[in-house]
């Protein structure tokens, strides 16, 4: 059964390859020259995802395409000639794209997706080099090394066509597989979702804008037979960048794939040959710029996360001391200006060292985590919860009188007594110090006052709240 499934899967790969190959023949603007060559993208993806397991299917598909091509152009080659030519092409195609995709896979698997520009850079370099090697060797092998001038023209068109086929289609194929099997590395790069991703209708609007621009340029350039107008195709970079910065990478990849397919189709329908090379280069330049730019939203999102991480305690998600102080100073200025009462709570787990010593540090961490969850459930969203360090926490309660702050402390203290942990014997209590801070000179004075009260609570037997009313 497993063997039958494998044969079925590989036959499906051969079929897909041939369909894509037929698509590229369909969009050829001259014999063996198309804006893009999708089978190259498919071969590269198969080797990238399946490694050398993809070899038989890719080899068979390449050989069959030579036979099919012979039928299409009716070139009267014998079966033996076709088999020799087909295997040469297949060998080269599989060797170049197999080796390059496997090398790329080995290097990107080790890269963190946070470092997005690194896999993107490697992907672009590998694709450019592999398609150049394929085109040069292919022209030399299949056409027996023609004159320098036609060699350059044929290999350049082949190179750029293969490169765009890979650049444009690999991310789409990977994106599809990625949805099913989420992975790290380049594959996870495509999983990145910007927070600002727009609705589908807005994405569709950007796509239509790109297509209208593209059709306008190609039709006008063809009508006036003007390479200058054809060069305006590079301005498609702008709507593509818009898509990159506002949509997910997979949408960007889909947009590039559709754009290059439509461009290839239009060039083929209009029979454009003069400016076709400009369009080929444009697709590659636009794709490269889009991939590079793709790392910017990912970097921005990473930066945002790092920013939050730097200000937030990992274990309890409470604000770290320095940031808490900065926020408190800001609140104090406002509280003084508007005459609002503001209170500060300082609290500390009782005999936390003993908890750690008896139940272990992991149990101690669990206590801190659960405590933080409880505190958050008892406060308002405008209150600020901070970790001073170790088992000591702070709460800034804006627009809260000291009496109300005392009630908050008591509610938390009573909630703590009801907490349960993985260690059934573990019980926890906290001591609280409360101070009114809006009349203190800055954070330090307010903190000293709350700390004095906390020490008083500890001295007087722990598991209680101590406070001193500010003299008005
Ligand atoms: N599990 C765990 N322990 C921590 C963490 N941070 C600090 N600690 C420990 O917390 C303990 C704090 O103990 P102390 O400040 O001496 O006070 P205490 O044992 O709580 O005693 P009192 O405050 O007087 O009731 C120390 O043993 C620290 O090693 C943490 O993130 N996780």
From TrEMBL:
It catalyses: 2 GTP = 3',3'-c-di-GMP + 2 diphosphate. Keywords: Cell membrane, Membrane, Transmembrane, Transmembrane helix. Its cofactor is Mg(2+). It is an enzyme of class 2 (transferase). This is diguanylate cyclase. Its EC number is 2.7.7.65. One of its GO terms (molecular function) is diguanylate cyclase activity. It comes from the Bacteria. It is a multi-pass membrane protein. Residues 340-470 form the GGDEF domain. Coiled coil: none annotated. NCBIfam families: GGDEF. One of its GO terms (cellular component) is plasma membrane. Pfam families: GGDEF, MASE1. It is found in: Cell membrane. The chain crosses the membrane at residues 6-23, 35-62, 82-103, 123-144, 156-181, 202-221, 227-245, 252-271, 277-301.
